[in-house]
Amino acid sequence: MKKIAFFLLSFFLLFEPHTLFALTKAEFAYMWDSSPMFRDIVTQEKALWMEIVAIAARDRRSLRHLREEQREWVTYGLDEEALIFVRRGIPPVAAYTKAFERRVAHLKRERNTLLRRGENFRPLTAREYDELVRISPGFRRAERALEQHWEKLCSLCVSAEQKASYERDQEEWVRTGRDAAARAHCMRGMTREKAYIMASEERLRYMTQQIAQLKAKDLALKKSKKKNSTERPAKRAPKKEAAAAQASSEKKMRDHEDKVLAKLREIDL
Q1: Number of domains into which the chain is organized
Q2: What would the pLDDT profile of 85-99 be if each residue is shown by its tens digit?
Q3: 50 with 26, same domain?
Q4: Which one of 53, 81, 141, 237 counts the least CB within 10 Å of its CB?
Q5: Among 210, 211, 190, which Cα is nearest to 139's?
Q6: Quick one: pLDDT band at residue 64, thresholds 50, 70, 90?
Q7: SS3 sequence, 211-243?
C-alpha cells in the first residue's frame, strides 16, 4: 500500500507541479511515517523556529519580518524548493527532506544573526540548562569537569573564610557570570550552545589556576614547617659554640694579663 501511495505521489509531483503548492495532510503524514530522516529534519526545523521566536521576542519588528518570511516559506517556498529537486530525479520524500534541510541551514544563520545582537541574547533558563546538558556532549563534559574541579577547590581551602569566599564567587558566576560570558561569545558569531560551552571551559581554566595556586601555597607551607622542625635543634649548637668561644677568649685575656704582670715583676726586681 505504501509503495502504491509513493508511486502516485511521485507521479503527481513529476507531471503536475501545481499540486506541490497544496501538499495535503495525508501526503505529509505519509512522509512523516515512512521516512525517519524526514521526521528528524522537520523536528529540527520546528525547534529552530521556536528558538528564533523566543530570541526575537523583544524585537517586534524583526519578529514580524521573520514570521512573514516563515509563512511565505511554508505556503510557497517549501514546495518550490522540493520541486527543483524532484525535477532532478530525486524522489518526493527525499526532495522534501532536502528542502527542509536547506530551511534548517537558513534558520541557523538567522538565529546566529539575532544572537550577535546583544539585546536579543536570552540567558539559559533552568529547563534549557538541563536540556543543553542532555543534548550537548561538549557542554555536558565541561559541566562535569567544573563539578569535579569545584569539589577539589573546596577540599584545598584551609579555612572557613576562604571557602566562603570561593562559594560567593561561584554563586555570582552561576547567577550572572556564565550568561555574560556566553553573551559575549554570541556577539562574536558563535551559536548559543557553543557560547555556553566556551563560557564553561573558561571557568574551568580559572578554577584550574586557583587549584594550582592553593596547591603551591600548601606545598610552601609544608616545606616551611619541615624546615623549621629541622632547624630548631641546630639553633642550640651556635649558642654553645658562642659560649665556648667567649670562654676561650676570656682565658686568653687572663693568660695575657698574667704574662704582662710577670714581666712587670721582673722589671721591678
Answers
A1: 2
A2: 888 899 989 999 999
A3: yes
A4: 237
A5: 190
A6: confident
A7: HHHHHHHHHHHHHHHHHHHHHHHHHHHHHHHHH
